[in-house]
Amino acid sequence: MPASSFSMAGFSRLGESWAELGSALAGLMFMHAMLQQYMPTWFLSYLSSLTKKLLNYSNSKVQISVSEFSGDRMNKRNQLYLDIEIYLSGLASAHARRLKADMSNKSKTPVFSMDDQQEVTDEFQGVKVRWISKKENRRRSNSLNNDSTPDETRFYELVVHENERGKFAESYLLHVREKAQEISARNRQRKLYSNKSGGYHSLWTDVIFDHPASFEKLAMDPIKKREIMNDLKKFSSSKDYYAKIGQAWKRGYLLYGPPGTGKSTMIACIANYLGYDVYFLELTAVKNNSQLRELIMETSSKSVIVIEDIDCSLNLTGQRRKLSSKDPVKKKKEDEDKEVSNSNVTLSGLLNSIDGLWSHCGSEKIIVFTTNHLEDLDPALIRTGRMDKHIKMSYCCFEAFKELAKIYLDTESHVLFDDVKALLNEVNMTPAVVAENLKPKCAEDDADTCLKKLVGALQEARGKAVDEVEVKDVKAEPKLIAPMKVMKKLMSKLKLKHKKAEK
Ligand SMILES: Nc1ncnc2c1ncn2[C@@H]1O[C@H](COP(=O)(O)OP(=O)(O)OP(=O)(O)O)[C@@H](O)[C@H]1O
Ligand SMILES: [Mg+2]
């Protein structure tokens, strides 16, 4: 084929999207022109067939463009474009030469994207694809006067091989979308909502949720902790499963145990682990069942809805009995709440809001109740299906202590560990109190000092516990116990005398 038969139009098209290939062809053409005078005809025809192959290769590529705006009038922001931008941010920051950085109120960290005319490559199911960021003047309509004005529009161009234009391109773009949603969920600034005072536009007010709690720092039996973490991960990835069984994608957690065992801390750990928002639902501030429904409906997906101290947060009427806290501090709060509360929320209203029709709005929600008194709760409230997982938060065991020692003292073994183990078997001490004793109070406090402090506190607690038991016993059966004690003392004195006499 003579040199003049090169398609210049094809060449320039190629150069547009395939900068590298274009320059290679330009080189080949230049060489061809130069060599025409000196090279034999067979070499020239070989060169020309090689160029043709390269051109064919470039023509076997398909370009799919995704514009920043979509719709008939090109005046709607295209969600797919935004998803691609997020998806490519990681690849762009690693490979693109020119980047743009942006940081919205909703994100925790800056988001990088490709500047115009930048390229990155990606691989999916073993197939390589190429992305190019472009801009051009396209006509966009003005929605008010139907005018169509030229405007600068950005778009991403996906270049795939001809064979991959159908099923592959479809599943690749779905994959891009899914990953983008995961990335934005991880990167977004999370919120802590409360209904205590109510917002201007919404029943909830919010602040930024920035709690440092994590499962790594939560002291509890490691096997139990792993089980909870697995359960949460399984829940968050079970979208298809819930759709298959036709149920709302939600899960109920009941956290129960004495004060200071980490129930509230566990809620923060759950939210941080899954990257969810937190809604603290104060039932005493909810007027009636329909407001409760509205509140639940306003909660977003990927959230933890919390009702703390469910046993004393509301006087749930109906045929249910009146609940009242046994904890004196909480009893006081409960009495104060009763005075200010105008709530008419009933237990059935609460149950309906949790698992009825209303909870089907949005999805991926975890509902958590906490209580110090499991026995006070109405069985209907905590039955399986409503509260799927019951987690007992217990007093500090030796395993939990070891975790706290690692967190607070960077210590994994010490001679005093055996003493602590023996004492924790005898004494009930909450992780909150153990943690407080392990915290160094000044720069000189080392692991040795803190552990001695803890052992001292445990011994003191054991002493008090024994005293309390004795006082209780005496109070319970004064006539029986008191003479028994005298008898025991007399017996031991007699035994001693008897032994001495024998000697
Ligand atoms: N298991 C734990 N691991 C690490 N720290 C803990 C743990 N439990 C409690 N703490 C510490 O004790 C403090 C109080 O714990 P938290 O408020 O979570 O207890 P709670 O069970 O919710 O108590 P209450 O029943 O009174 O609401 C926390 O700030 C945390 O630092
Ligand atoms: Mg709490």
Can you offer a commentary on this structure?
- This protein is α/β, with parallel strands linked by helices.
- It folds into 3 domains: 61-137 and 151-188, no CATH class; 194-320 and 342-392, Rossmann fold; 398-476, no CATH class.
- The protein has helices spanning 8-17, 19-36, 41-59, 79-95, 167-187, 222-236, 239-245, 263-274, 289-298, 328-340, 347-355, 379-382, 398-409, 417-426, 431-438, 447-476, 478-502; strands at 61-67, 69-70, 76-77, 99-102, 111-114, 119-124, 127-141, 148-161, 191-194, 205-208, 250-256, 277-280, 303-307, 365-371, 389-392.
- The longest helix has 30 residues, at 447-476.
- 24% of the residues are buried.
- Residues 1-17, 317-323 and 477-483 have low confidence and may be disordered.
- Adenosine-5'-triphosphate (ATP) is lined by residues 218-220, 259-265, 372, 393, 431-432, 435.
CATH H level, superfamily name of the largest domain? P-loop containing nucleotide triphosphate hydrolases
Strand proportion, as a percent range, falls in: 15-25%
- The gross shape turns out to be elongated
Bound molecules: adenosine-5'-triphosphate, magnesium ion
Rg computed from alpha carbons, rounded to a whole number of angstroms: 35 Å
Total beta strand runs: 15
Q: Tell me what the CATH architecture of the largest domain is.
A: 3-Layer(aba) Sandwich
Number of helices in the DSSP assignment: 17
The rounded distance between the terminal residues' Cα atoms is 128 Å
The side-by-side strand order for the widest beta sheet comes to: 10-9-12-13-14-11-15
**Structural class of the secondary structure composition?**
alpha/beta
CATH topology of the largest domain: Rossmann fold
What's the story with the biggest beta sheet? 7 strands, mixed
Overall pLDDT score: 79
CATH class of the largest domain: Alpha Beta
- Regions with pLDDT < 50 over 5+ consecutive residues? 1-17, 317-323, 477-483
Proportion of helical residues: 40-55%
Total discrete domains: 3
